[in-house]
């Protein structure tokens, strides 16, 4: 009896030490996972806010409430976001919240720190004016997931550790348990947790009640593990789908922002910034392939007088109509129409020689004449345009700027010759 009592005391001491060690490890792992989750959550919120802030700022400037609401909804849909708040400079505030998960960890863990993103736009009065603040409150979902993962791992370690202690105790105290334990151990070794729902059949040997209980617990654990694996697979699939959706949305937003940056608002054509980039690109391609490259410079005749007599709103409509005529007259999608400045337009014509470019210029002039836009200060009684054409040749000292300068000179000659005409720059005037 004394020997048995001594063995029991030793076993209980080992169990208590083991449980205490597992508890310390669980707390340590949970603390590390918590810090990692906080850093990951902060990074995700930072990228999320940086991605949406420019578009929201632009939408505030343009008073596009529908787009603002859509952007806030997209932010709120992120699983780690608890709430998103938009505070405009005028004092208006919009708050969207996700329903918090009710559990023990959610009540115990401190709230993650909010992140604020200053919304700024470029205006006529200021180069960088603030229009509001975007505030994103991270949720505790990621923190709970990380901590739960650490606790689950610690639980498994504790379970299998205690199982080993029990097996050793049974072997020492009850030799009659040796054979069943070996059979149980063999069954565990031959079990694949990834595919088996139960341990292999142990019929043919009498199992003590304790061993049967252990076997049933392991079978239950295997089944629970399979359920968790199936749930994890579904969650992973959902996360992958969400990442693909978010990536597509970000790419779409980036493309939309790029179009806004490089598009003239009044005419709908590319702007001067896009012109410089596209001309350099087409010039390089022409140099590499040895194909021709032509440029049209177009100016509305007597536009200042048109504005004085018909008003600036009519002038804007005239520019918009002219832009539409130019764009609709281009026969190839590789041709680029640009609002160069004011009432001046440019058309880049890759793989187009002088003869073809003159045909295009003639078509543009004729289509605009068909619009019959009244202009009593014009000799024709309607709005006309003057066009200058230049073509790239193969001189090594040439550059895109030479092509622009040559087209400008040809356009100036059209103006001097009475307007409503087309002039082609001579090759010697490229320099």
Task: Give the SSE map.
Blueprint: H1 2-61, H2 65-76, E1 81-88, E2 93-97, H3 104-108, E3 115-121, E4 129-138, H4 141-173, H5 178-189, H6 209-261, H7 272-289, E5 293-300, H8 303-310, H9 312-328, E6 336-341, E7 344-350, H10 354-371, E8 385-391, H11 400-416, E9 422-424
Parallel strand pairs: 8-9
Antiparallel strand pairs: 1-2, 1-4, 3-4, 5-7, 5-8, 6-7
Helix pairs in contact: 1-2, 1-4, 8-9
Which terms summarize this structure?
single chain, 431 residues, alpha+beta, Alpha-Beta Plaits, 3 domains, 11 helices, elongated
Brief summary of the model shown:
By secondary structure, the chain is an alpha+beta fold.
Give a structural overview.
The structure is a single chain. Helices cover 59% and strands 14% of the residues. With 431 residues, the chain is of the alpha+beta class. The protein folds into 3 domains: 144 residues, no CATH class; 81 residues, no CATH class; 159 residues, Reverse transcriptase/Diguanylate cyclase domain (Alpha-Beta Plaits, 2-Layer Sandwich). It has a 5-stranded mixed β-sheet with strand order 6-7-5-8-9, sandwiched between helices. α11 links the parallel β8 and β9. α1 runs antiparallel to α2, α1 packs antiparallel against α4 and α8 crosses α9. The mean pLDDT is 79.
**Total individual domains:** 3
**Tally of DSSP β-strands:** 9
The assigned structural class equals: alpha+beta
Number of contiguous helices: 11
Per CATH, the architecture of the largest domain is 2-Layer Sandwich
* N-end to C-end Cα span: 113 Å
Helix content: 55-70%
What is the CATH third-level topology name of the largest domain? Alpha-Beta Plaits
CATH class of the largest domain: Alpha Beta
Taking pLDDT < 50 over at least 5 consecutive residues as the criterion, the unreliable ranges are none
CATH superfamily of the largest domain: Reverse transcriptase/Diguanylate cyclase domain
Shape: elongated
